[in-house]
């Protein structure tokens, strides 16, 4: 057995070209079954170790992608990340998760680091809408895809649910249950993607059902349990009458349920609540939360394959809008 045998040694042993050995090692076609057996036998006899890292560096390919997320404490990201990681690993890629901060303030340093480490692609997951972040992703010369957000300035491929229509559906669902005084725990006012669109969907549903819109029934949050809890407390303390609440996400909806509990009230007896996302939080809430379900795991899977298309074929994927559905549990009652 040779010390440190090379691919050339394998080719000579198997009586084939170096290119043929390379094709066998990389799972390509263009050789017979008999040739593959000879190459495999030569590799085993010589003890040749295939150096995938060296090959990838030579090809300027690392088979690593990065996922940028603004926060890690919410369960919203778990299913998306699972979808990305499962799809990536099935295709021979590893995943690096980067926490860029709720405001995205670490995005610049992360993208610079990722460019230096030569990752093959980047997925931005529910990043805050920010022109600086969009510019960094558009100009970093690394294939990028966005999940559950979009860029209004650059043609970065995205995959998401139509937030306007989904929020419209959530509000209409409460109306169908007899609710007319419907409050909203909305997202942040500076979030022109999820926050603003979900508020618009709520307002349009009221308008189409001839229910007057009252700004006093809207409280704003930062898409978190803590801000949802405080917003719901403010709503209860306002003295405004309401029987239903549309929440911008499940974390905020559970905050509303907790605020009711602290006030000695019970959901849905005191008021009904519908969430948004269908995360594990919705299933574990007491009572279990009725919510708008986003296909989070498939979004992650498809986001990776959209990125893969550009990484391997050099073609940007087309934007995708995925369907949503309302999952009925116990947090809404008919009035």
TrEMBL record:
Give the record's keywords alphabetically.
DNA-binding, Transcription, Transcription regulation
- Which Pfam family would be a valid example here? Peripla_BP_1
> What top-level branch of life does the organism fall under?
Bacteria
HTH lacI-type domain residues: 5-59
Q: Which GO terms describe its molecular function?
A: DNA-binding transcription factor activity; transcription cis-regulatory region binding
- Looking at the record, the residues that make up the HTH cro/C1-type domain are 6-49
Q: Which InterPro entries match?
A: Cro/C1-type_HTH (IPR001387), HTH_LacI (IPR000843), Lambda_DNA-bd_dom_sf (IPR010982), Peripla_BP/Lac1_sug-bd_dom (IPR001761), Peripla_BP_I (IPR028082)
Q: What PANTHER family does this protein's entry cite?
A: HTH-TYPE TRANSCRIPTIONAL REGULATOR GALS, LACI-RELATED TRANSCRIPTIONAL REPRESSOR
What's the protein name?
Answer: Catabolite control protein A
High-level lineage: Bacteria, Bacillati, Bacillota, Clostridia, Eubacteriales
Gene name, Swiss-Prot/TrEMBL: ccpA
């Amino acid at each position: 057995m040779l010390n440190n045998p090379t691919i050339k040694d394998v080719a000579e042993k198997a009586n084939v070209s170096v290119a043929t050995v390379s094709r066998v090692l990389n799972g390509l076609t263009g050789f017979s079954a008999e040739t593959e057996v000879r190459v495999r036998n030569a590799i085993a006899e010589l003890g040749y170790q295939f150096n995938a890292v060296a090959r990838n560096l030579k090809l300027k390919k690392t088979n690593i992608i990065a996922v940028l997320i603004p926060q890690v404490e919410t369960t919203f990201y778990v299913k998306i990340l699972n979808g990305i990681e499962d799809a990536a690993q099935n295709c021979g890629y590893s995943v690096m998760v980067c926490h860029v901060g709720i405001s995205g303030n670490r995005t610049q340093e992360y993208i610079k680091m990722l460019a230096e480490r030569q990752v093959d692609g980047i997925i931005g997951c529910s990043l805050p809408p920010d022109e600086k972040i969009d510019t960094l992703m558009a100009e970093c010369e690394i294939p990028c895809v966005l999940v559950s957000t979009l860029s209004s300035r650059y043609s970065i491929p995205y995959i998401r649910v139509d937030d306007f229509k989904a929020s419209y559906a959530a509000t209409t669902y409460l109306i169908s249950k007899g609710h007319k005084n419907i409050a909203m725990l909305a997202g942040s006012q500076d979030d022109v993607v999820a926050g603003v669109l979900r508020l618009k969907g709520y307002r349009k549903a009221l308008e189409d059902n001839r229910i007057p819109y009252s700004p006093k029934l809207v409280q704003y949050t930062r898409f978190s349990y803590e801000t949802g809890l405080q917003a719901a407390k403010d709503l209860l303390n306002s003295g405004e009458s309401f029987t239903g609440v549309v929440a911008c996400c499940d974390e905020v909806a559970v905050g509303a349920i907790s605020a009711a509990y602290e006030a000695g009230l019970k959901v849905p007896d005191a008021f009904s609540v519908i969430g948004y996302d269908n995360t594990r939080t919705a299933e574990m809430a007491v009572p279990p939360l009725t919510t708008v379900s986003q296909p989070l795991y498939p979004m992650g899977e498809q986001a990776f394959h959209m990125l893969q298309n550009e990484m391997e074929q050099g073609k940007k994927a087309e934007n995708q809008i995925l369907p949503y559905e309302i999952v009925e549990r116990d947090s809404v009652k008919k009035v």
